[in-house]
């Protein structure tokens, strides 16, 4: 498979797009200073893990989350990491960067309230999609950690948008069956932009890696992504498939039906097995996100219908 030029792909897809298209009533979040500094310094090959760890340690919350993640059962260390530097050494630079970015982005958005979304439920669904995308990425034989981070952040801007543009998004939820099949189609009709494009543009402003920007930008492509010669077996495809899972907003009205259809066409893709794997990993992850609404519960109707066949 030809290596993807993520920068070229991102630049072409976002050509002519600008955050200036968003209404002035939308107050965009800012990344924590430690995260911004970490991203900037990590671009310099001369920067050491010790120097990056010193940046992480300026943010207590980020340090705690890093150590919690590295010492979780998912990583499976024999000896617990006790410092940020040890934790970064375990993950390596690339995974450390993805973790710092995703954690910092969550912190930036969690600091804001949403009139429409329950934040705990929202991030619970995001984590489910991330775990699902990671498993799908393994099936596609592509980067599972990029798929995880991309899926976790695919909708990161929705709490801000649904709060600052509450009447428009409230109408979508209140009249769901009368609206377009996908949230992005509704947004395009209402605003001439959507949360995927806005999220990608803000990620570019934050200087996030282009491959992560593309995961955010293309996450709404659904199963059509599997016909894309460039992206069909990339982390972007895993994220797009995860976006078909149900959530508070019912972003894709027939997403579950599409996943059931996919398993009929792809022998390696078993929805029941993937859902059970996600719930198991979610319970053991130890990321501080309560799994009050397991994915199996979200998918119960589709799984029951499949079992009856």
Automatic annotation (TrEMBL):
Alphabetical list of InterPro entries matching this protein: HDOD (IPR013976), RNase_Y/CdgJ (IPR052340)
A Pfam family per the record: HDOD
Name of this chain's protein: HDOD domain-containing protein
Domain HDOD, first and last residues per copy: 28-222
């Amino acid at each position: 498979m030809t290596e993807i030029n993520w920068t070229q792909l991102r630049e072409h897809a976002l050509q002519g797009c600008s955050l200036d298209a968003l209404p002035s009533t939308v107050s965009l979040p800012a990344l924590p200073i430690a995260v911004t500094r970490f991203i900037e310094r990590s671009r310099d090959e001369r920067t050491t893990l010790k120097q990056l760890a010193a940046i992480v340690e300026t943010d207590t919350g980020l340090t705690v989350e890093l150590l919690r993640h590295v010492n979780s059962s998912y990583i499976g260390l024999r000896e617990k990491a006790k410092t940020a530097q040890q934790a970064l050494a375990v993950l390596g630079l690339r995974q450390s960067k993805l973790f710092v970015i995703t954690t910092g982005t969550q912190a930036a958005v969690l600091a804001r309230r949403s009139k429409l979304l329950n934040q705990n439920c929202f991030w619970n669904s995001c984590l489910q999609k991330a775990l699902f995308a990671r498993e799908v990425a393994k099936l596609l034989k592509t980067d599972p950690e990029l798929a995880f981070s991309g899926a976790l952040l695919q909708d990161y801007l929705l709490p801000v948008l649904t709060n600052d543009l509450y009447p428009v998004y409230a109408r979508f939820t209140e009249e769901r069956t009368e609206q377009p099949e996908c949230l992005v189609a509704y947004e395009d009709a209402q605003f001439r932009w959507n949360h995927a494009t806005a999220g990608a543009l803000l990620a570019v402003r934050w200087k996030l890696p282009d491959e992560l920007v593309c995961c955010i930008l293309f996450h709404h492509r659904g199963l059509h992504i599997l016909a894309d010669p460039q992206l069909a077996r990339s982390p972007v495809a895993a994220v797009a498939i995860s976006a078909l899972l149900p959530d508070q907003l019912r972003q894709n009205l027939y997403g579950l039906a599409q996943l059931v259809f996919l398993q009929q066409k792809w022998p390696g893709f078993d929805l029941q097995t993937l859902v059970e794997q996600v719930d198991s990993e979610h319970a053991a992850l130890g990321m501080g996100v309560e799994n009050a609404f397991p994915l199996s519960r979200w998918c119960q109707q589709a799984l029951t219908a499949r079992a009856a066949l």
